[in-house]
Structure formats: structure tokens, C-alpha cells
Amino acid sequence: MPTQRAGSRRLVGVYAADGGLFGELGYILGKIRGTRSCSLCDISHGRSLKARPAWTRGLNELSVPLTVVHLNEMDADTARTAAGRSPVVVLLEDRRARILLDETDLAGCRGDPETFFSLLRGRLAADGESSN
User: Fold this and answer.
1) 7-16, pLDDT tens digit by residue?
2) Contacts from 97-100 at CB under 8 Å and sequence distance 24+?
3) Full-model pTM
4) Which one, of 119, 104, 112, lies nearest residue 11 by Cα?
């Protein structure tokens, strides 16, 4: 992902799974066996391989772009900020980067995209007020 421009904000959601064929299969098998979980996956996809319509709609309505990546797809800024924690949502802004939503926040959404986007918008608003 490109270096941040002054005044730009972007969000990166990090799934608690690797991408690619083996990463995805490993996650699915682990989920079936009850040994793997990812609350961000539950929010964005539920039990489907396709993104939920409410997830896609929420992405389109956000004022700050949100990209979702797997563990093995993170850029350096996101990886440094996540520091081994996942799932998380990282806010990258100018020269600052921080976790905006952590695993506890995401689990609290209980797989519901509307709850996720409501929480995310609230955190973005609070963050915007505190950074002014």
C-alpha cells in the first residue's frame, strides 16, 4: 500500500487468518473444528465465502476508506501497529497509526455488520475530535 499523504486517513482491517489457498483452507478447517475464530471474518462474511450485503453497503457509506487484509498481506505500517494482534482495525493518518478497534471491540459486535459500522463511525468521530 502507498505511503500516507499529508491529511489522508485510511483504515485497515486485519483478519486473524492468512490469505491464499492454504491460509483460507486452514482457517475454514479450524473454524469447523472450533480451534480458530476471527470476529472480523464473522462480521464481514458470516458463514459465507462471499461478503455480506450489509458489509459491502457499510464499506460504501464510510467517510474513511477501509481495506481488509489477511495477516500475510499487511503493509509495514499496519504490521508495526498491529504488533501481532488480530483481528484489529488500524487507523493510519498522516504520521500516526493506531489500533482503532481491537479484538474485544470486534467480538462485541457479535458478527453484526451494522453494529460494527456504528461502532467504527463513533470511534472515528471521537478520534477526529481528539486529534484537532
Assistant:
1) 589 999 999 9
2) 100/11, 100/124, 100/127
3) 0.87
4) 119
Rounded to 5 degrees, φ, ψ at 62 are -70, 145
- Per-residue pLDDT tens digits for 22-43: 888 888 787 888 888 899 999 9
| DSSP notation for the chain | -PPPPTT-EEEEEE-SS--HHHHHHHHHHHHHHTS---HHHHHHTTTSSSPPHHHHHHHHH-SS-EEEE-GGG--HHHHHHHTT--SEEEEEETTEEEEEE-HHHHHHTTT-HHHHHHHHHHHHHHHHHHT-
Identify the structural domains of the chain with CATH numbers, from first to last. 9-130 (3.40.30)
Cis before 53? omega within 30: no
Give the tens place of pLDDT for each residue, 48-83: 889 999 999 999 999 999 999 999 999 999 999 999
The pLDDT score that the predictor gives to residue 131 is 52
Q: Which of 41, 35, 33 is nearest to 111 (CA)?
A: 41
